[in-house]
Design goal:
By secondary structure, the protein is an alpha+beta fold. It folds into three domains: 220 residues, 3-Layer(bba) Sandwich (FAD/NAD(P)-binding domain); 157 residues, D-Amino Acid Oxidase, Chain A, domain 2, CATH 3.30.9; 125 residues, 3-Layer(aba) Sandwich (Glutaredoxin). The longest helix has 26 residues. α9 packs antiparallel against α10 and α14 crosses α16. It contains 16 helices and 24 strands. A hairpin with a 4-residue loop joins β8 and β9. Helix content is 29%, strand content 24%. The strands form five sheets. Strands 1, 2, 7, 8, 9, 10, 18 and 19 form an eight-stranded mixed beta sheet that branches.
């Protein structure tokens, strides 16, 4: 690369460089910071994108935010605390209600936690806050962290992995200033069209649905409709509303709980451009009125996708989020799967940077996360297909006995769609069975997208319990886990675990012993000892200290016993 001396800085050194400042890149930077690892975060735009996207911060994502100490601040974003989060299906807004999926408000969820049993598995329930609000907050928070160098408004032009480090060249989009950075590792979190995956020559594999709705080219339009709630939704406040009739199908999601919505419409064809007039007409047909609509912005997207990258990186370069999986938004799994990618990758990068990770640790990232991407994209695709397959009776809008029968028939079908708004099994049930860094022991529970079964079988999320009678911060097991590995001593008769602690100390692996004498916790785990990884997944369990503690502890970080 050729550059003049006044625009090119000297080479800057950093452990991790991150390309892409969406929720996955921001989350990865914060998780690395939690481990004490410095990073630089590049994003071509100067600010986060101000357009509604996903509105579901899943239960597992909220647990990661809790670990970062920001869950309560995220819960202050989005819909008002007392706003209902029901999903309601209409023939048209203000017309017949076909079905309703009742769901608790944010305030009701928090009240339920206050009286939850000790072994309650959802300390951080799913939260409805649009991604644009969350991204803005995350960037503001990132800017307060000394370990994170922020380069928003900078475009990474290219990078080179020489085997010892990654060198990348970036340019400031505003003033043309250039910088060269040299990092131990590079993380591509720059989305489906990002340059990092393309530069590596990695392709997606999978398929997309083509169906009448939630399949093919769609538009997500940010609209302001001042009278929609007052004149058409009235007491029918909710989180999401659908119009379903033989003429059209549309979906709106409440953004601010008042007059702003994310409005989904199906494109006329695969090459159609967004058109304000078409969107306004769709809203007017959805209300069967001349309602006033202000179009704020459009975003095209493709529904029905289930695409996963062939590889999760190469050499010292790794991919996360939309760079490795593209979802249809049904179920709200996309961004949440990406944040879980970041949680898996962060501790492994930290281990390598800090010198306690083994030679096989980073290879386990793809081995563990790619099966989850295939699982989650498949679940979202199936949910999308379920919606697209619903038959709409021709008489559904008729004011007649035949119309009433048609509405009952359609409503019964729609009432079965609740799994796309809960799916706690998808949110909490990710497992790393077969991973080379997990000490397998026993049969895992059956994978179920709808339900989550807590299990101490190594590979899954550590079963949650409240360690005392409180239900606030500090009372959750997850609040007591160490930043590195944690050995839980469960019940009143657990072995000391000292051999594992000594083995960790000898290999400089961060390690914490945590006594949990409560019998309910012991019964939940069904064992006396459980070794929990930095990402809160179970690495090993047993009733006695392993005969070769060093072999076990080094296996969990991808190394072989010396």
């Amino acid at each position: 690369m050729t550059a003049t001396a006044d625009t090119e800085s000297l080479s800057l050194q950093i452990p991790v460089a991150i390309v892409g400042g969406g929720p996955v890149g921001l989350g990865l930077a914060l998780l690395l910071d939690k481990h004490g690892v410095r990073s630089v975060l590049f994003n071509t735009e100067e600010i986060t994108r101000w357009h509604p996207k996903g509105s579901s911060q899943g239960a597992r994502t909220m647990e990661h935010f809790r670990r970062l100490g920001i869950a309560n601040k995220v819960r202050a974003l989005g819909l008002p605390a007392d706003h209902p989060t029901d999903v309601i299906y209409f023939t048209r807004f203000g017309g017949w209600e076909l079905a309703r999926l009742p769901m608790p408000s944010a305030a009701e969820k928090l009240r339920a936690i206050a009286t939850a049993p000790k072994t309650n598995q959802v300390p951080e329930p799913l939260h409805r806050a649009n991604q644009m609000y969350v991204e803005k907050f995350l960037l503001e928070h990132v800017r307060t962290r000394a370990n994170i160098t922020v380069r928003f408004g900078w475009r990474v032009e290219n990078f080179t992995d020489d085997g010892d480090a990654v060198t990348l060249h970036a340019i400031n989009e505003r003033d043309g200033k250039r910088e060269t950075w040299r990092s131990a590792y590079l993380a591509g979190c720059d989305g489906g069209q990002g340059m990092v995956r393309r530069a590596l020559g990695i392709r997606y594999a999978g398929e997309s649905l083509q169906q009448a709705y939630m399949g093919g080219r769609m538009f997500s339009t940010h609209v302001r409709v001042p009278t929609l709630a007052r004149d058409f939704l009235r007491t029918d406040r909710g989180f999401q509303y659908w119009v379903i009739n033989p003429e059209l199908r549309t979906t709106i999601t409440s953004v601010n709980g008042a007059d702003e919505f994310m409005f989904w419409t199906r494109a006329r064809d695969e090459n159609a451009d967004a058109d304000d007039r078409v969107v306004v007409d769709a809203m007017r047909r959805s209300t069967n009125s001349d309602i006033a609509v202000e179009v704020l912005a459009h975003h095209p997207w493709t529904a029905g996708m289930a695409l996963v990258a062939e590889r999760y990186g190469a050499g010292r370069v790794f991919l996360a989020g939309d760079s490795v999986h593209l979802f249809t938004p049904t179920g709200g799994f996309g961004m949440n799967t990406g944040v879980d990618d970041a949680a898996n990758l962060a501790w492994k990068l930290a281990a390598m940077v800090q010198g306690w990770g083994g030679g096989g640790l980073l290879a386990s990232y793809e081995a563990e996360r790619k099966p989850i991407a295939l699982r989650n994209t498949g679940a979202a695709r199936q949910l999308s297909k379920n919606i697209g397959d619903i038959t709409i009776p021709p008489a559904v809008e008729d004011d007649s006995a035949a119309g009433e029968r048609a509405r009952c028939e359609l409503g019964a079908a729609l009432s079965t769609c609740g799994e796309q708004y809960g799916s706690i099994g998808v949110q909490l049930g990710a497992r790393y069975d077969g991973s080379p860094i997990v000490a397998e022991d026993g049969a895992p529970p059956t994978d179920d997208f709808i339900n989550y079964t807590p299990s101490s079988v190594p590979g899954g999320r550590a079963p949650h319990f409240w360690v005392d009678d409180g239900r606030g911060f500090g009372s959750s097991l997850f609040d007591r886990l160490g930043t590195g590995f944690t050995l839980l001593r469960l019940g009143g008769r657990a072995p000391s675990g000292s051999a594992l602690a000594e083995a960790a100390a000898q290999t400089r692996i961060p390690f914490k012993l945590l006594d949990c004498a409560d019998d309910e916790a012991r019964d939940l785990y069904g064992c006396d000892l459980a070794l929990i990884r930095p990402d809160q997944h179970v690495a090993w369990r047993g009733n006695a200290t392993p005969a070769d503690a060093e072999r076990l502890i080094t296996r969990t970080v991808g190394a072989r016993k010396r």
